[in-house]
Every structure is written in C-alpha cells, then in structure tokens.
Design a protein that fits this description.
332 residues, alpha+beta, 23% strand, elongated
Length: 332
C-alpha cells in the first residue's frame, strides 16, 4: 500500500506552515506598481484589506523617513539583482516603530506574468535585542573608563588627607570598598534581588567614596525628603548620581580641596525634585554640542526609566543640576 509522502504539501499545509512562521506573503506587479498581500501582510502594514488596489507608494508612506529613500532604491534595483535579496527597514504605525525584513528573488527571469513574489517578516524583536546589546556594550565601555578615572581621583583625595603610606593605603582601600558598594547599586541585580531603599541612604552610599571626613560630615551635604526608592528605580537613579559624581571628581567641585557639593530635594504628590549644587571647584563651562556618551546615558535613564527631566545651569561658581522625576516611577 503506498504511503503518503510527508513532503507532499497541500495548499492548506503551506498556509499553516507560513502562519506558524509569522511570514506575510506579497506580490508586486512591476508594470502597474500594484501590491497584493495576504491577511497577515495587510495587518502588519495596518492597511485595510478592502479590495482596493495598494501601490508601492501607499506602503512607502508608512516607511520611516530615514529609511524611505533607501527602500525605494532597493526595490527599484531588485529587478537587476540575480538571486535572493533581503532588506530590513522600519515602518511607523500609530507612533509604534516596527522593523520589517523584505525578502524576494531578483532578476526579471523570475517574474511570473510580470509579477514578483516575496515575503515580509516582522523582525522587531530581533532588532530591539540588537540595539539593546549595542547600548550595553557602549555603557560597559563608558563605565570602565569612568572607574579608572575615579580610582585616580580617589587616590588624589586620599593623598591630601593622610600623612603616611599606611594611612593612605587604609583610607584608599576604604574608599574603593565604598565605591564597590555604590557600583552594586548601579548594576541591575539578576532575578530582581535586593530591596527598596530610602532616598537619603541611597545617596549616602553613592557619595561616601568622595567624602573627605566621612559621609556627609564634611564637604558633601545631603538634605532630601524621607521617602522610599523602588527596586527598579534605584538602579536608574544610582546610575545618574554615579555619573554626576564621576564628572564632579574629574572636572568639578570634588576635584578641588575647596570644593563642596550640596544635594537637596523636595517633593509633592506627583513629582520629586533633586538639586545638585557644586561650589568652590574650578571654573566650568557648558559642553560643546550634545555631550558625550555619559550625558546621553543620564538623559535616557531620567526620561525613559524615571519619567522625568534633567537641566543644567552653568555658572562661574559651579554647575547646578536639577533632576525632576515622577513620584510613581521612583517608587517602582
């Protein structure tokens, strides 16, 4: 008795396989510029499947402006490509950005009755993961450079307040240990380990490596409302404070014997405001352009994770940084 061939695909089997793979089918009449897609394709592009013709230009209107010319040129050149081609691009649907991979076979010899065929694949998840890895790599590189600068600065601070090599070694070891505790707050813990902290305690741990006479008893002063900082927000806020302290140690008030740092705060039901005020350090000037990677990292943390903003006031006496955060976000 003959057995069924498992590789003999019916139309229904092909539809099920394509649906399971998340693939959208398209065809393009190169003469009339008319596009046709399956149900998944119309949903992916958010185009109504009402029987009206869809042209390539109709779809182009949904392509991200930064990618539009590149995609048009690629599709126009596809007919001259021998073999398979693939292009990734972004589309904008109701302010949501999706990444699409368009794949097909080039060369007019593969046309059937003047129609080219191919697929669309939603690759948003993969692209977001790639962007996340690039951000992480850049952030890690930035932090390593900062840690080297901090170690040098802490050595200088310790040398000013000690008279013997033994005293300096003891003090420097203590500062580096405090820096390690502060760095743990900047590093996200796996599996949501750890607990929420009080805002004042969080700032105390982060700034203690830079204090000459013990946390907040010397040139660093902190006066903030007594309030909790949630587990998720603690990492973002710690990263911001760590970056501000690093910059102050490299260029600002904490780099000088006479420099002081005042961190004050106030709150209402909806917003928390923290003001970082440096005085007594070297003259400071606003950076040229948008700033470096650290500045972008701070803005991303404040606006993206804490729902707030950061403003700088540059003066001859020192920089003043105002952080505003949503109270609900800080408690998360």
């Amino acid at each position: 008795m003959p057995t069924s061939n498992p590789l003999s695909w019916s139309a229904e089997s092909l539809r099920r396989a394509i649906g399971a793979a998340g693939v959208a089918l398209w065809s393009w009449n190169v003469e009339t510029d008319r596009f046709a897609m399956d149900e998944r394709g119309y949903a992916l592009w958010a185009v109504p499947d009402d029987g009206n013709p869809v042209k390539f230009e109709d779809l182009s209107a949904r392509i991200h402006p930064a990618d539009r010319d590149r995609v048009r040129a690629a599709f126009a050149a596809a007919r001259a490509i021998v073999g398979a081609y693939e292009i990734d691009f972004r589309i904008i649907i109701d302010e949501e950005i999706r990444w699409i991979s368009a794949r097909g076979i080039g060369d007019d010899s593969h046309l059937h009755n003047g129609v080219a065929y191919g697929i669309f694949l939603d690759v948003t998840g993969r692209k977001q993961a790639e962007e996340g890895h690039e951000l992480l790599a850049g952030e890690m590189s930035h932090r390593v450079k900062n840690l080297l600068a901090i170690a040098s600065g802490l050595t200088l601070i310790s040398s000013r307040s000690t008279t013997t090599a033994k005293e300096m070694a003891t003090e420097l070891t203590g500062r580096l240990a405090a820096l390690g505790r502060a760095h743990d707050l900047v590093r996200p813990l796996p599996g949501h380990q750890g607990h929420a902290a009080l805002l004042g305690d969080l700032l105390s741990i982060l700034l203690s490596p830079y204090e000459d006479l013990g946390a907040f008893s010397g040139r660093i002063r902190v006066a903030v409302p007594r309030m909790g900082v949630g587990e998720g927000a603690a990492t973002a806020l710690a990263l911001v404070i760590h970056e501000l302290a690093t910059n102050s140690l490299k260029y600002g008030a904490l780099s000088a014997d006479t420099g002081t740092l005042d961190v004050s705060g106030c709150s209402d039901d909806e917003e928390i405001k923290i003001v970082w005020t440096e005085r007594g350090g070297p003259a400071v000037e606003p950076p040229n352009g948008a700033g470096g990677y650290g500045s972008r990292l701070v803005v991303r943390s404040i606006s993206g994770q804490l729902g707030g903003s950061i403003d700088y006031t540059w003066s001859a006496e020192g920089v003043i940084v105002t952080l505003r955060m949503k109270a609900a976000k800080l408690a998360d």
